[in-house]
Every structure is written in C-alpha cells, then in structure tokens.
Amino acid sequence: MIYSIRAIQDKHSIVPEEMNKLIQLHKVKVGKSGMLSKNAYELLISHLGKETDSDSKPIYILNGNKVPVKNKPYYETPDGRISIFQDDVISFLQGLPPNSVDLIVTDPAYSGMNQKLKLGRGKIIGKYNEAGKEGAKWFEEFHDTEENYKAFLEACFRVLKKDRHIYLMFDSFSLLSLAPIAREVFEVKNVLCWDKANIGLGHYFRRRHEFILFASKGKRNLNSKNIPDVWKIKRVTSSAYPTQKPVEVFELMLKGSASKDFVVCDPFLGSGSAAIAALKQNCKFLGCDISSKSVSLSKDRISQFLKTRIDPYQKASLLGDDDAMTKLFFNGKLK
Ligand SMILES: C[S@@+](CC[C@H](N)C(=O)[O-])C[C@H]1O[C@@H](n2cnc3c(N)ncnc32)[C@H](O)[C@@H]1O
Questions:
Q1: Ligand 1 atom 10: the closest Cα is on which residue?
Q2: Residues 37, 78 within the same domain
Q3: In this structure, are 121 and 168 located in the same domain?
Q4: Which residue has its alpha carbon closest to ligand 1 atom 17?
C-alpha cells in the first residue's frame, strides 16, 4: 500500500487544487514526492466529503466537482458512473455544478391534477398505500404550482449543458396547465405520446396515454430521424413502486438524444427506471428523489442489475406489437 497524495487523488477523483486545500486545512505534513505517513493518509481520507470551502459551506467532491455535502450520494456505484441522492428536486439541482448534465429525462409527481380538477373524490388513482399501513402514501408529491414548476425548469436549465435535450413527462391535465411554462425556459420541439397499449382507469374516457414534452437548450439534432412521435409500450403491471414507468420509455429518450458516457439526470427518480435505461445505453446517471422508499428501492435495483444484467423490477420487455418500436429496439443500429 502506497500512502501518497497521488494515491488519494487517483482513488477518489480529487482535483489537485482541492487536495491542497484539504492539506492546508488539516496542516498535514507531506514528504518528498507527495509521500504521506499512514496516519496522515487516513486523516485525509477521513475528511474527504467533509471538507470546508472558502464560504465555510461543507462540500463533497463528485467527479472532481464541488457539490454541497447535503447532496452526498445516498448510493454510488463503485465506478462512480451512477449516483443517486435523497433530496428535494430543486435543492438537488441547485447543488449540481452549472452545465454539468447532458440529458434530462424525468417524470415529475404532479399534484396539480388532484388539486385543480377535483375529479371523483380528488384522489390520484393507484397504489399509494404502503402494504400494511392504510392511508400511508409512498411519497410526497412535488407541489407543482406554476411558481414551483418554473423554479424546477430554471434549475434544469442551469445544470443542462448547451445544445442538449430534455424530456418531461405529463398527464393530460398537467400538460394543459404547466407545459406552457416550459416554453418560457426551453425551446419546445415536440409533444410525444406514450401509448400504453391497454386502457387503464379514468373519468369520462379510460386513460391509455401520457405525454412527453421534448425540448432543447440550444441546438441539437436527434440521433435518428426514424423515431415516431407515438411510442406504443405497455404499462408496468404489478409494479414494485407506484407510478413505475417502463424502462423502454426512458430508453427511447436516450436512443433519441444520448451518446455513450452522457451524464443523464432524472431528478424524480421513483423506482429508478431511468437509471436502468442509462445503464443499458452505456450512459452515466445522476438521480434524485425525496422519498426514502424510492432511493432504497433504486439502489437495490441498480446493484442487482449490475451484478446479473437482469432488471429485478421489470423482468420482461414491455414492447407491444408496434413495428416501429420493434425495429428501434431489435434491429440494432438506428436507421
Ligand atoms: C411519478 S414518480 C416517478 C416514477 C419513475 N419515473 C419510475 O419510473 O419509477 C415521481 C417521484 O417524484 C418524487 N418526488 C415528489 N416530490 C419530490 C420532490 N419535491 N423532490 C424530489 N422528488 C420528489 C416522488 O417521491 C416520486 O418517486
């Protein structure tokens, strides 16, 4: 075992500038060629992630970037390519460095649908009760007032690199009320439809679809000109997490807009479907959710997938009988 500054930098992706600050802060004695005593090495290691920057704010070093310590990952894969955080969406995004994300794909928890429409008894239909605890919700909803939604979009804009894409999922009602705000922040390019192939519950008409707003920050072409604007992919039944979406929905977003090693971000992580899509498409991933159930389930899902290449929470493909989808997924290269 070599105790040196270099060994710490390499192992923990610390940039030299940050390493020097840490050394000065803890008055560590450094020998010739950056060699350290075992005690000094262990002291420095024990302070990684608890460092104090010049504003006295605690910081964590993520891939060489400073991130507030509040945002230390809940879980990180050993290679550092996938990190998930338990935090509020806006606080999480504000803690990321500007222009650090290559693609945002996300499915927010819309509470407006309940509050504004007062349909039926005003409840979102679905499995919100945790087994054994009647009335308990699995997660808090993001309060999607217009003000909050704009703040969320602006936080997305800040972290997204220039000339990159964002995909935002909407039900019909949040599309009517909140999607127009997206035009104030991003260049909205299209509204896609996820056709769930089979009908679900619903008022007046039974629901079979959701919308996906596709927008950009700056200019960027899609990876293919052959992706249709209706995506027929079956819904997840008997899901491990309420509102779990098919991995294929996120994979299509990545097929359209990601390159290998892109940093993909989903700040409303849920069951981690977008993380599995990122792994399948050889991308890096940053995810966040406010719910402890979400982050623990996602951690379990990601680590099992990495060990076995089998997704424990969506064992089978949900592609239906749509030729365009089958070609996109099974004919290898996009045309
Ligand atoms: C519609 S679900 C996402 C489902 C996910 N796409 C999947 O496939 O499993 C929305 C998620 O947003 C989370 N959420 C609600 N309010 C939040 C907030 N303020 N910050 C971060 N996450 C929040 C919920 O805990 C929930 O897991």
A1: 109
A2: no
A3: yes
A4: 142
Backbone angles phi, psi at 284, to 5 degrees: -85, 165
Positions in the chain short of pLDDT 50: 51-57, 112-137, 334-335
Pocket of ligand 1 (CB under 6 A): 88-89, 107, 109, 139-142, 241, 243-245, 268, 270-271, 273, 288-291, 294
What range defines the domain where residue 5 resides? 1-69
Q: What is the whole-number distance in angstroms between the Cα of residue 291 and the centre of ligand 1?
A: 8
* Residue pLDDT, tens place only, 93-151: 998 999 999 999 999 988 644 444 444 443 333 344 443 444 444 555 567 788 889 99
Residue 335 in domain: no
Report d(CA 107, CA 268) in Å as an integer. Answer: 6
Same domain, 152 and 25: no
Q: How far apart are CA 95 and CA 62, in angstroms?
A: 11
Write the CB contacts of 76 (distance below 8 Å, at least 6 apart in sequence). Answer: 82, 83, 84
Q: What one-letter code names the amino acid at 67?
A: V
Domain boundary (10, 38, 69) is at 69
Q: What is the best residue among 88, 269, 293, 311 to mutate for testing ligand 1's pocket, by most ligand atoms within 8 Å of CB?
A: 269
pLDDT for 119 equals 42
Q: Are residues 179 and 53 in the same domain?
A: no
